[in-house]
Amino acid sequence: MPSTFSIDTEQRVILAEASGLLTIDDLISAQRRMQEDPDYDNAFRFLLDLRDVTEVQISSEELRLLADKSSFDSTAKRAYVVPSELVFGMARVYSAFTTADPGALQIFRDMDEARSWLGIR
Length: 121
Known about the structure:
Structural class: alpha/beta
Number of strands: 5
Helix content: 25-40%
Low-confidence stretches: none
Shape: globular
Mean pLDDT: 92
CATH superfamily: STAS domain
Strand order of the largest sheet: 1-2-3-4-5
Order of helices and strands: EEHEHEHEH
CATH class: Alpha Beta
């Protein structure tokens, strides 16, 4: 899974993208790289673009593990933009395992709606 992220310290947001095959190893590696970045702040808003994901090979138990490894503050707003029912379902399962405050994590089909909800340009 190719993945990239950038941290916009001015807007206090982390922008991440994933494409192709999505596996737990790739997600954990991407999460680790992000958390090791010197500009990382667990209170920043987070936008994850999954629109170019074509296949998912992640179990529910692996999603639970990923949620347990998240270092985001529970009140940090997180928006996931998904392309399909399959990825939408995966994001919903992940959101059930996360410690995010109710309403802090939202799943969108439209990038503009996600950006608007996060309050970013």
